[in-house]
Design goal:
It contains no helices and six strands. By secondary structure, it is mostly beta strands. It has a domain of about 50 residues. Strands 1-6-2-3-4-5 form a six-stranded antiparallel beta sheet, with no helix packed on it.
Length: about 70
């Protein structure tokens, strides 16, 4: 018998307010709302309130979550 994948999302994977994000340069997944549609990006906090994405540069996210583990 095959096991069905879980539909529950672990608590650590829930979006959290950006104010609670790590401020030590740890890369996380951020959510940036925009009129043309939201942006989801890997970014890190560089100076307290300034967020930098590898591809998009300076960002103003409202929420964050830890990056998932890479595939094995």
């Amino acid at each position: 018998m095959t096991e069905k994948p879980s539909t529950e999302i672990p608590a650590a994977s829930q979006w959290q307010p950006i104010e609670t994000a790590p401020k030590d340069g740890t890369e996380v997944l951020v959510y940036v709302p925009r009129r043309l549609g939201p942006i989801y990006a890997e970014a890190r906090n560089v100076t307290g309130n300034q967020w930098w994405g590898r591809v998009l540069g300076n960002l103003r996210p409202t929420h964050w979550m830890p990056l998932p583990e890479p595939p094995k």
